[in-house]
Write a structure and sequence with these properties.
The chain has about 290 residues and is an alpha/beta fold. It contains 14 helices and 9 strands. It folds into 2 domains: about 160 residues, 3-Layer(aba) Sandwich (Rossmann fold), CATH 3.40.50.720; about 120 residues, Orthogonal Bundle (N-(1-d-carboxylethyl)-l-norvaline Dehydrogenase, domain 2). The strands form 2 sheets. The protein has a 6-stranded parallel sheet with strand order 3-2-1-4-5-6, with helices on both faces. A 3-stranded mixed sheet has the order 7-8-9, sandwiched between helices.
Length: about 290
Amino acid sequence: MSIGYVGLGNMGGALARRLALTHPLRVFDLRPEAMQALAEDNCTPVQSAAALGAECGTVLTCLPTSDDVRRAVFGPGGLAEGMGEGSIILDQTTGDPNATRAMAAELAERGIRLIDAPVSGGKRGADAGTIAIMVGAEEADYAEVLPMLHAISPNVFHCGGVGTGHVMKLVNNVTAASAYAASCEAVAMGVKNGLDFARAVEVLNKSSGRSFMSEAMLAAQTEGPQPFDFALALMHKDVRLATQLGADSAAPMFVANVVRELHQASLAHLGREADVTELLRTVERNADVKVMP
């Protein structure tokens, strides 16, 4: 049967386009223009999730939240209405592991399998075919979908059973968010005490305090605002999910909870449409210093 993709935003659209290089896709999004943008890239628009599910043995999803995935799967006209026994939903959303496991249990009653396979590396990584894919699945299901995932990227990692891909993604994103927040605050302190912003970041990135976030995100801001094409609201969601998982499992996350509050304050200050890099604006305000050119 065919392969389908639901959710064609910045990330989903890039992943679908990469997969379509080797696998013809049926695609669905609530926005017709998003489907049309992929119509010339080996992708065929379908008018509903249910219709797509009926035509496809495997459907990938990439949506903002697990609540959106639930609506796409179980809502009116959702995937579950069309998909048959033995089919697979492969969720590339950065989602809530507990919600994922609950949906997997519900779908199993219909004979449908759910695999979580979130990604890290951004749209650039998806376009380049270098993105990391973190998979939560039973061994046999993982083996079945691995060739398809390798069409997106060679960097595929089996993290354990259903839900562990989403756990791993939260580990990654809360670490990245914490590193960026700490780097912004430290450099703002340095600038307020006489350092040049660009020179401070240059030295940091040749020293032991460097990270992907200081090299890929903070360094770009030395030339002025450079969006990373990832919403501040989505990063806040990821940090919130990580800290909630920590609370639920009695794994204290003192640092991550402070980072969550900083992102919450930034959302109030900058709005939900702000790019994640604009966290530096909140740090500037807190330190009463101008950092970014």
